[in-house]
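Extended Data, panel c. Modelled sequence:
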Amino acid sequence: MVRAWLQGNRPALVLAGPAFAAGRYGSACAEVFRLANEMGIPAITGMHPENSGAPMYRQGYVVSTTVDLHKQ
C-alpha cells in the first residue's frame, strides 16, 4: 500500500513519524524509509535515539525526539 502510494504520488520528500520510543512505530518508519530509498526519494524521521528502529536508518536522517512529548 505504501509502495503504491509512493509510486503514484512521487513526493519530493518523505517524513515518517515521529516514532518517539515506540519500537513498532520505529520499525514502520524504517520500512517506509526503505521503500522511499529504493525509489530514490529522500526520507527523514523523528524518533528517540534508543528506539529499536533507529539502527535501520543508517542511510537516512533521524531527528532526535524525547520519549513522550506529553511529558515535557
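The chain has one domain: 2-71. This feature is highlighted in the accompanying rendering.
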